[in-house]
Structures are given as C-alpha cells and as structure tokens.
Specification:
mainly beta, 7-stranded antiparallel beta sheet
C-alpha cells in the first residue's frame, strides 16, 4: 500500500450495552455486540467468561418442577425442591431429604413462606390441582393438608404472603386469609373475603412493600394497596392492558416488576411510565429479537425467572424444546443482555449459606439440583464463550478498506487458547489464529531461580492483508474449553486498517 494511504482505527473495550441483533450489526451502539454467549458483562470495560455450575444432588430422572429458598426469621435455612410428585428439603449441606412423595400429579409447583401465629415461619406448597399443604420446619415429615373447603385457600398455584396474610389469585378473584393465622385450613372466607381482579387467567402475585399487590393475569395487570384490615373501600386499579405469558417470570427487580409478556420482557412500572410520557413502550428484550423469535410458545408456561446479583435471569424453552433450554440474562444497570447456553433450568431459588446468598436451580430434564453462577465450568463441562463484535465500517460504509492489523488484549491467566476469527461483508468467518493466555507465567518443572509473573496483560496482533478489500468487518472470539480455576477476561479488541482510494461502482 502507498505511504499516503489513510489510516483509520477503532477500539472496543466496553460491551456493557449487551447483545443486539434487532438491527443491522453496523448500526448497533458502540458498547454493544451482535452475539454474547456465556459472556459476563458485569464490569464495564471488560468481557469475562461467565461463572459455571456445581451439582448439589441428582434427585431422580423426573423433570424438576419447583425450587424455593426458605429462610425463616428463626431456625435453619432450607432449599425446597419438587420433582415429579415428590418434595424434598436440603439443609444447605449433606443430602436432600424426602418429605412428601404423593402429590397426585406432576405439575409446576409454587412454594410460599408464610407466618403462623404461635409457630413462626412455615411454608406452603401448591400446584393448582392438589390441595395446599403446609410444612412446619419442626415436623417436615408430616405436612398438613389444608383441605378444599370454603375456609381453605382456593386451588390455585398463584399466591403470595403480604402484610401477614396469605393471598390467592383464582378465577379473577383475589382472596385473603386471616392475619397471621394459627391454621390456614380455616383462615379464608371465600364467600366474602375477596376483591374482583379481572386479569384473565391468573399468572402471578407480587407484593411490593409500599405499593401493594401486583396481580398479573393472561390479559391484564392490576394492582391494589389493601388496608391493614382489607375493606370494601380498597379499590383495585388496572395498571396495564398487557398480559403475562408465564407467571413464574414475574419477579420484583428494584422498584419494578419484570415479567414475560407476549411481546417480550417488560417492567410493569417502566411500561406504564413510558406509555404516559412517550405514548409508546418497547419491551426490555427488544434488542434480542432472534432469541425472542425462537421461543416455543406451546411450552412457554414453563418459563421461570429470578433476580440475583443485580441481574434478571430468565429460563425459557426455545425452538422445538419441550423444556427450558436457554437462559437470558439482563443487567438493569447497563440495560444489556447476554445469553447462557448449557443450562436447562426448570426453576430458580436463592438461599443464604453461611451468610452468603447463593443461586440454585433444578434441572428441567432430570431433577438434578445445581448451585449456579459459581466456579469455572458447568459441573465439569466446558463453558462455550462466544462474542461477535459490531460490524465495523469505521463510519465509512461506502469506502473499501484493506490491510492493517487486529489486536486483542486479554488477562494473562494460563495455558488457554482463544480462537480469533474475522468475517468481512457478512461472509463466512475465517480463522485468523489464536491468542494464548499463558503470558510469562512459569511452566513447571523449571530451573531455579525464576520470577513469578503478575496478572499482566497479553497482547496479540493478527494481520488482515489476507482478507483482501472489504467494506465492514466483524470479529469473533471463541473459547470452548475448560479453564481450570482461572478467569478468561478480554480487555480490548482494536482494529487498524486503511482506506482504499474511493471508486464509484
């Protein structure tokens, strides 16, 4: 190339804006990527292979149906798991203990912590078909059948505990129990103690401390801020004309409630505010169009979500899967998304172990329980890290580029190879080579004396001459291998290239 060819460059460090495949890859934001699979974007200015999973116990070959972290005000924390027609508890160490084995059918299960007069905290279990069952931590092997009478909680899988009462949403009615009851089998009066909630088929109830109860149904979202003693003057109000597609995706996130609607992931109050101020509202998941388009709506009732470590995790069935086989992760602080592959999550739970809040899930295939977002592999299997950059045209989409270099900067962590690919003008990716993360770390055995390496930066340069001329380029980094107990962190991708002389075509 001539010495007067004009040099142009781009530097990408921050992908905190997350994945965006809604619009053409050359038009996405500067801090976004076209693909982020198993890439944690928690820290602005770097990309990191996401944490993995560790098996707690394989309960059976039955699909998982429910998981709940029970944290009583006094007493020991428990993880409660339901698979098939069985319920187990785990005291955060050792093995799970079977507590009930005769639910009449295998259905998605909802577990709720409630307070009981004279006892303290207990939990109740419901699947919408069997009667509700109450579990006392002092006698977990003998759950109480709460019956199905006018005084019992209605047969619904949608309930919550709020302001010392058990609330149940069923058939467009919101029922409440006596306050802090001594026996919830006789705590309701279904003939009088309810509010009309015309939300359609019930999906979820979320109690928000200062706002009241959010009732989500298939057709609409309503809310009510009940008095300490519920009264006829407490008036339900419609919040949204948008319905909830899967009840277990409804989760409180900060001052909002996120849920899966039929047009994407939404926030109840953000949607309401956007419509009032802007006249229109886009779902939070608007940018991950390809993932949303792949949802299997015939199985969408199985979708489930949780808020953990400042992230909204939602597990969904995609393509032709009959179970949840993909996880989407939303970072509210940066409004970015990334995708997790390799996790089949039937339900999530959080529970504190030795003072540390931990994330768990039960598998949607075989009832195995895993600790999630921990370690460096998925229970011994490699995590497949894939990032694909913006389609870089250097804001000169009509001019061809040629030559130059691609530079990758990463953390020196160990003898791990990251494959580096480039694609020009939407053609197939070409392997440019590998960046090895060993750096100057010593390899044993080694002759003494030697100097220990610090956590320095590895830098590798790849020449682009072999690609010929091009209008836009995209870079892909892949690490589909185990990485011991070391972090895989990418700090920078930069490209220096040259403009060719402009020619009209």
């Amino acid at each position: 190339m001539a010495s007067d060819d004009k040099e142009i460059f781009v530097i990408r460090r921050d992908y905190s804006g997350g994945q965006n495949n809604r619009i053409h890859g050359s038009n996405i934001n500067e801090n976004q990527a076209t693909v982020l699979t198993n890439v944690d974007i928690s820290v602005p200015g770097q990309r990191k292979k996401r944490p993995g999973t560790t098996l707690v116990e394989d309960l059976s070959d039955n699909p998982g149906l429910g998981l709940f972290g029970f944290e009583p005000d006094s007493g020991s924390n428990l993880l409660v798991a339901v698979e098939g027609t069985n319920l187990y508890t785990w005291a955060t160490s050792g093995s799970f203990t079977s507590r009930k084995t005769n639910f009449t059918t295998s259905l998605l299960n909802n577990i709720i912590k409630i307070g009981e007069s004279g006892i303290g905290d207990v939990f109740v279990s419901t699947n919408g078909t069997d009667n509700w069952f109450r579990f006392d931590p002092a006698d977990l092997n003998n759950p109480q059948d709460l019956g199905n009478t006018n005084k019992s909680p209605p047969l619904s899988k949608v309930g919550t505990y709020y302001r010392n009462r058990l609330w149940v949403l069923d058939d467009n009615n919101l029922y409440w129990s006596d306050a802090f009851s001594a026996d919830y089998s006789g705590a309701f009066d279904r003939t009088t103690d309810y509010y009309k909630m015309p939300v359609g088929n019930e999906r979820a109830l979320i109690g928000v401390r200062d706002i009241g109860i959010i009732a989500l149904g298939q057709d609409q979202v309503w809310g009510i801020n009940p008095s300490v003693t519920p009264a006829a003057t407490d008036k339900p109000e419609k919040i949204l004309d948008i319905g909830c597609a899967a009840g277990r995706t409804a989760v409180q996130v900060g001052d909002d409630v996120y849920f899966l609607s039929h047009d994407g992931i939404r926030g109840v109050f953000r949607t309401q505010q956007d419509k009032l101020q802007l006249g229109a509202s886009y779902p939070l998941s608007y940018v991950i169009k390809e993932e949303f388009d792949s949802l299997n709506w015939a199985q969408i009732s199985k979708a489930t979500a949780i808020y953990f470590d400042n992230k909204y995790f939602i597990s969904v069935p995609v393509n032709a899967s009959s179970y949840n086989n993909q996880v989407w992760v939303y970072y509210p602080a940066s409004q970015g998304w990334m995708i997790i592959s390799g996790w089949n999550v039937a339900d999530w739970a959080k529970v504190k172990v030795d003072g540390e809040e931990r994330l768990y899930y039960i598998d949607s295939n075989d009832g195995s329980v895993f600790r999630a977002w921990t370690g460096y592999n998925d229970n011994g299997s490699a995590i497949n890290y894939v990032e694909e950059s913006k389609k870089e045209d250097f804001q000169k989409s009509l001019q061809k580029k040629v030559g130059g270099v691609l530079k990758i900067r990463a953390l020196s962590s160990g003898d791990y190879d990251i494959a580096v690919y480039a694609s020009i003008d939407d053609q197939e990716y070409q392997l440019m080579g590998y960046i090895n993360l060993s750096g100057n770390s010593p390899v044993l055995p080694i002759n003494l004396p030697f100097t220990l390496a610090s956590n320095n930066i590895i830098e590798e340069i790849f020449h682009l001459d072999s690609l010929g001329e091009w209008y836009q380029i995209r870079v892909k980094l892949v690490h589909n291998d185990t990485n011991g107990s070391d972090d895989i962190i990418i700090y920078e991708t930069s490209i220096i290239t040259y403009l060719t002389e402009f020619q009209s075509e």
